[in-house]
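PROTEIN DESIGN WORKSHEET
SECTION A - STRUCTURE
LENGTH: 239
TOKENS:
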């Protein structure tokens, strides 16, 4: 879908996505489940919710005709999405919600740098100024946590690593989202990311099912709100 055919201006959809993703921190804090479990079920529940709406015939043809490079890019995008949730969600156990959320403001920095070297995309002066402001704020937050505790600083580091991971995910998906329907792309990367976390949980002996009913509702809400109305919407807008 082109920009000209959108029912509303792109910033409106971006705002919806940002608000939806912002609910992640609240839901994560409400749950007692490990970060790797929260991320795994967040992704896999989203996959299940997508199943009735997938264009199966188109998906079969698309995957059959995909090149090795496209398969590799899809795998990279999915793996780094899984790593993003692992690092970023774990950061909430060590630092404040505000720090974990605001440090994600570094994402445009990594995306801009990667887009320049990979796609030769240039950023406007206004964009550069905005990025510098985001970096300054992130440095202030991290320096403030140095005085709090080493644990808080470790949480900030995890948040930054999660931001780097999601930046790689976005860069890998930019070209793919122009070649395939966003729902197919989102389904594929959510499935790959969920399986990455599933393997991680198996290897680290994390329980897969022994959680309260409240936690299962949180898993579902994470899939519905920040994933479908957040990450999946961002993937759609990458076109």
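SECTION B - SEQUENCE
RESIDUE ASSIGNMENT:
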């Amino acid at each position: 879908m082109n920009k000209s055919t959108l029912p509303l201006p792109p910033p409106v959809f971006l705002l919806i996505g940002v608000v939806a993703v912002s609910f992640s921190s609240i839901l994560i804090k409400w749950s007692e489940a490990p970060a790797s479990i929260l991320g795994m079920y967040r992704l896999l529940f989203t996959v299940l919710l997508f199943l009735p709406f997938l264009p199966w015939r188109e998906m079969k043809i698309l995957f059959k005709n995909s090149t090795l490079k496209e398969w590799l890019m899809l795998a990279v995008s999915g793996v780094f999405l899984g790593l993003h949730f692992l690092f970023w969600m774990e950061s909430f156990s060590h630092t404040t919600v505000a720090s974990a959320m605001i440090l994600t403001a570094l994402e445009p920095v990594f995306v801009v740098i990667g887009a320049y070297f990979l796609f030769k995309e240039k950023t406007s002066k206004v964009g550069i100024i905005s990025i510098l402001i985001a970096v300054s704020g992130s440095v202030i937050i991290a320096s403030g946590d140095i005085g709090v505790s080493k644990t808080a600083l470790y949480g900030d580091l995890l948040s930054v690593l999660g931001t780097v991971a999601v930046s790689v995910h976005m860069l890998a998906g930019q070209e793919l989202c122009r070649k395939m329907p966003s729902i197919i792309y989102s389904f594929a990367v959510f499935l790959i990311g969920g399986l990455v976390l599933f393997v991680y949980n198996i290897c680290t002996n994390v329980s897969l099912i022994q959680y309260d009913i409240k936690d299962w509702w949180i898993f579902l809400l994470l899939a519905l709100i920040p994933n479908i109305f957040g990450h999946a919407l961002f993937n759609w807008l990458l076109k």
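SECTION C - NOTES
The longest helix spans residues 150-179.
The two ends are 7 Å apart (CA to CA).
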